[in-house]
Task: inverse folding
DNA sequence: TTCTAATACAACCATTTGTTTGTACGATAT
DNA sequence: ATATCGTACAAACAAATGGTTGTATTAGAA
């Protein structure tokens, strides 16, 4: 498993890219099969350029890659990046468990109600 | 396990809320222990009102809840919502698997290269 | 009661996003 | 060679976001 460190900025871009229904749909479609930008554009009620920009946002977040094929650009979903996002969320779960652990310890020690200073 | 359906708009708000380092830090801290808004505000190099707005974004996404305690508002991270986000990402993984399955089937059937019409 | 701490909320401003239209350019087909 | 298809990219613009300051309200302290 590759545990490369993601900067705050990277994480920002990943989650921001996922915060749009059209972009999530593009990721879904390009995970299932390679699709050209024009094929994607034909699917949504917006201009070609708008779809192009959504793809660019996803590419910037590395959630998809683009590969030239003839005069088309085939878009391919990048599952590794999705998994990295999942690992980020896993970390939240770990923190939450640490809270439970700490509570358990406090209770076991007789809850001395420490003053905050 | 509660599998309540999330609207596109709900999902947008969840991911958008997570697309900011300060907000992710607030979620982390409030998953580990309850923290008041003023305690949070003291931690960041921005105004109280700015932190208040970040908390409001998280609350709107239901990633945290606020509970009055005396004159303070204690902020508490909502792990369930994090888990819902994870389930959304799980779904992408399933789609990707379906692609592999379909490729396997095509290869097994001799790849007839169907026309798109 | 009076003062203060914690919060809520509105108004405002700069920057970013999401979208459009228009122009340009490389690859393919005629 | 010319036309056309798929794409890239810039300019423009409305709307949303992230931040500020200022004012009001409420709960606890003196």
Result:
């Amino acid at each position: 498993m590759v545990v490369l460190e993601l900067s705050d900025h990277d994480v920002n871009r990943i989650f921001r890219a996922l915060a749009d229904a059209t972009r999530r749909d593009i990721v879904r479609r390009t995970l299932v099969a390679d699709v050209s930008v024009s094929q994607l554009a034909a699917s949504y009620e917006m201009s070609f350029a708008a779809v192009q920009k959504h793809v660019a946002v996803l590419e910037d977040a590395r959630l998809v890659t683009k590969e030239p094929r003839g005069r088309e650009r085939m878009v391919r979903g990048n599952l590794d990046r999705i998994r990295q996002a999942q690992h980020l969320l896993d970390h939240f779960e770990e923190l939450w468990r640490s809270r439970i652990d700490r509570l358990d310890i406090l209770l076991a020690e007789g809850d001395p109600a420490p003053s905050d200073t």
User: Anything to note?
Assistant: Residues 16, 20, 46-47, 49-50, 53-54, 57, 70-72 of chain B lie near DNA strand D (CB under 10 Å from a C1'). DSSP finds five helices and three strands in chain B.
